[in-house]
Every structure is written in structure tokens, then in C-alpha cells.
């Protein structure tokens, strides 16, 4: 028996993997649409979307076809060359957004790293080395590299890794007065999630984003929108900032861009992009033909009125049904979010117990997420079938019954 065919189980994780994750007790082996099957053949409804990654569900036939076709042509050529899928995807992204230039990488952290490096380079070239400070928000999440984890506003992720990069500060989210106090001529960039994801699915207020945009203009600071989680149709618009009518200088996207295949992108204007001249930044696998072929298929499907309107309708339906369950079982303080990025906030009685409710959902053959200790997060496929959404909600009610009985 070859090593590929050898039977493995969850127990093998503890023997061979670095223990930075604590994966579930079962191993998924197959997915189709919004359903997953584990090694024992158990079927689960997936309302987690691989943490908002599987925007078109599992094994969407058009993505499988795009990947298979490209896999028979060209896998990797390095950035000594360009390639057709990368050029096609870049053209479609610039046609669909404010941006004129694209940089491809492999993860949200890499895209944010590129955006932050770009902001510092623009400021250094135009105004000198003093203009290097970055303002982020408390409870934000921007990645796990040393730079991005410190730009993120959650100290629990950045402690214990040595001295922190200088010139980074954090202010409360949705607090324009705090931003006004923090920003100065030394600020090169403000980075925000239009909907804070990891910290509880918290949408920005309209006046807040308008005010931050005006402050960035006043102080010649780049406004970076991190749309790693909120982008690619998740909000019901292709990118969440479109809901507000506020245009950033730089935007990052990842997660759903590849529908499960690793790819990310930083998008910006021609004028800012020129500061990343030949040799200033790079990545071995960024713009990989396989990833870009899949990304193009994802974009072609998601960026249609049919899918985006469906996201809005299903999001409203999901929030309404969750509110009804919250009232029925006296469980949720509120249900918030945009499109199919939804957070159900536990009330005072159940604060800190989102993880326990997520575990109960798994026992009811349902996958949901948490966003902090008090919020159950839902990020299902953007094209989830109504029957799967309803079955998922039925299983969630079973989980709630078990949870409140405890």
C-alpha cells in the first residue's frame, strides 16, 4: 500500500502536525455544494464556507472544469514570465472595480503585506521617511505575518514573537473622533475592514467610512480596505465598500476569490502602483496559472446580478430566521451583518459560549463558525440551495435545544 493510500485519521494530526491548530475530531473527505462527508460517511450541512472561502460551495463543476483544463496546460512558470490566466483575471478585476493595477499573491496576509508595503513606499517616495505610520482598529484582523499580525488589533495573536514593528497604532472601530485624534501628517495609511469579520461581524457605519475617507484625503494617507472576508460577493455587492459608495486607494481580497484554491490580490491605481517598480516586491507563487484560472471562473460566476441579488435575498432570509430562533429560545442579543456574512450575538446569559454552541451544531451535523467568544458566525456558499439553507437552520435549532438545555 502506498503512503497516499494508507489510512489516516484525526489521531495522526497529533503525531505529525505542529499543534497550532485544534482541528475537529472528524476528517472531511468529500464535499458537494453545501454538504460535506467525513471518513465515516456522515453528512454535514456547511454554513461555514471554509471560513468564508468556499464562496461557490464545494467542488463547483465550473471551478473543477477550469482547474482541470488549466492543469493539462501549464502549472507554474515563475514571475520571469507572465501568463494568460493571470492577465485575464487582472483585466476582469480592474474592469469590475475602481482599480487599474493588480498584484497577485497567495493569501490575505500576503495581500495585506503588499498593501502596507505599498503605502509606506508611496509615502517614502513622495514625502520622505518620516511619513510611515499606520493606523488600524482594535479587534481587527489582517493576517499572521509578523507585520500584519501587529497591524491587526488583537494582541493575543501578536504577543510572544519579539519586538513589534514600529509606527503602528490602533483606535476603536466606528469611532471617528478617535481616528481624527490619531491621524497626522506622519500617517501613511489607514487600514480598515468595511465589515470587521473575526471580531464579531461588525459592519462599518456610513458616516464613519465617509469621515475616514475625508481624513485620509486631508493628510495624504492611503485608505486601505481589507476585503479579504467581505469581498467577492459576500455582502451582496462584489465588494462591501460599494454598499457605502466609498472608494479606497488600495483594496485587498482573498478567501472567496479562489473558491478554495489559494489566491489573493491587492488592487490599486496606476499612480500608486508605479511605486512598486521592478524588484521592490514579489512572491514565488503569486499569479500562478492554476490559481488565476480558478479565480477567473469564480469571478465570472459571482459577478452577476443573479448571484449577487441572491446573496442579498438569502442573507435577509438567514438573518430573519436567526432572529426568530433567538426570540424563541431567548438566545441572541442581535443578529447583524451584510449579505451572507452574518453574526448572531449571544445575549448576556450566554456570553462567552459561542464555542459551545458551535460544538453543539457539529453534533447536529452542521458546520458554523464563531467570531470571538460571543458571536456565532455564518458564511455559507453564496449559491447555497434553499433546501440546504433550510435544512441547516433546522439542524441549528436542534443544536440550540441541546445548548440551552445544558
Automatic annotation (TrEMBL):
Further comment: May also have succinyldiaminopimelate aminotransferase activity, thus carrying out the corresponding step in lysine biosynthesis.
Q: Does the keyword rRNA processing apply?
A: no
Lineage, top-rank taxon, reads: Bacteria
CDD domains registered for this protein in UniProt = OAT_like
Which keywords annotate this record? Answer: Amino-acid biosynthesis, Aminotransferase, Arginine biosynthesis, Cytoplasm, Pyridoxal phosphate, Transferase
CC cofactor: pyridoxal 5'-phosphate
Q: Where in the cell is it found?
A: Cytoplasm
For molecular function, the Gene Ontology terms on record are: identical protein binding; N2-acetyl-L-ornithine:2-oxoglutarate 5-aminotransferase activity; pyridoxal phosphate binding
**Name listed for the protein in its UniProt record:** Acetylornithine aminotransferase
Coding gene? argD
Amino acid at each position: 500500500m502506498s503512503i497516499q493510500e494508507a489510512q489516516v485519521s484525526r489521531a495522526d494530526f497529533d503525531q505529525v502536525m505542529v499543534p497550532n491548530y485544534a482541528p475537529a475530531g472528524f476528517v472531511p473527505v468529500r464535499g458537494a455544494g453545501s454538504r460535506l462527508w467525513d471518513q465515516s460517511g456522515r453528512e454535514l450541512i456547511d454554513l461555514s464556507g471554509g471560513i468564508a472561502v468556499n464562496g461557490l460551495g464545494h467542488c463547483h463543476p465550473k471551478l473543477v472544469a477550469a482547474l482541470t483544463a488549466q492543469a493539462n496546460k501549464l502549472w507554474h512558470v515563475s514571475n520571469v514570465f507572465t501568463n494568460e490566466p493571470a492577465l485575464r483575471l487582472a483585466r476582469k478585476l480592474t474592469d469590475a472595480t475602481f482599480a487599474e493595477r493588480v498584484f497577485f499573491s497567495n493569501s490575505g496576509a500576503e495581500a495585506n503585506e503588499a498593501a502596507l508595503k505599498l503605502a509606506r513606499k508611496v509615502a517614502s517616495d513622495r514625502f520622505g521617511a518620516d511619513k510611515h505610520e499606520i493606523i488600524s482598529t482594535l479587534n481587527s484582523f489582517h493576517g499572521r505575518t509578523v507585520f500584519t499580525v501587529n497591524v491587526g488589533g488583537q494582541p493575543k495573536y501578536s504577543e510572544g514573537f519579539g519586538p513589534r514593528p514600529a509606527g503602528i497604532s490602533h483606535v476603536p472601530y466606528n469611532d471617528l473622533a478617535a481616528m481624527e485624534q490619531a491621524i497626522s501628517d506622519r500617517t501613511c495609511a489607514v487600514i480598515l475592514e468595511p465589515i470587521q469579520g473575526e471580531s464579531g461581524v461588525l459592519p462599518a457605519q456610513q458616516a464613519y467610512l465617509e469621515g475616514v475617507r475625508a481624513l485620509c484625503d486631508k493628510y495624504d494617507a492611503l485608505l486601505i480596505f481589507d476585503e479579504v472576508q467581505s469581498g467577492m460577493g459576500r455582502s451582496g455587492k462584489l465588494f462591501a465598500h460599494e454598499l457605502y459608495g466609498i472608494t479606497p486607494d488600495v483594496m485587498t481580497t482573498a478567501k472567496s476569490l479562489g473558491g478554495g484554491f489559494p489566491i489573493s490580490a491587492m488592487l490599486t491605481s496606476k499612480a500608486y502602483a508605479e511605486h512598486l517598480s521592478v524588484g521592490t516586491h514579489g512572491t514565488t507563487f503569486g499569479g500562478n496559472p492554476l490559481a488565476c484560472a480558478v479565480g477567473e471562473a469564480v469571478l465570472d460566476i459571482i459577478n452577476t446580478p443573479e448571484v449577487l441579488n441572491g446573496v442579498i435575498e438569502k442573507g435577509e432570509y438567514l438573518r430573519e430566521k436567526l432572529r426568530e430562533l433567538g426570540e424563541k429560545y431567548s438566545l441572541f442579543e442581535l443578529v447583524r451583518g451584510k449579505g451572507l456574512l452574518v453574526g448572531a450575538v449571544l445575549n448576556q446569559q450566554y456570553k462567552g459560549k459561542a464555542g459551545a454552541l458551535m460544538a453543539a451544531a457539529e453534533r447536529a451535523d452542521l458546520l458554523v463558525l464563531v467570531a470571538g467568544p460571543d458571536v456565532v458566525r455564518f458564511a455559507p456558499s453564496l449559491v447555497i440551495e434553499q433546501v440546504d439553507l433550510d435544512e441547516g437552520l433546522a439542524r441549528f435549532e436542534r443544536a440550540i435545544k441541546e445548548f440551552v438545555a445544558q
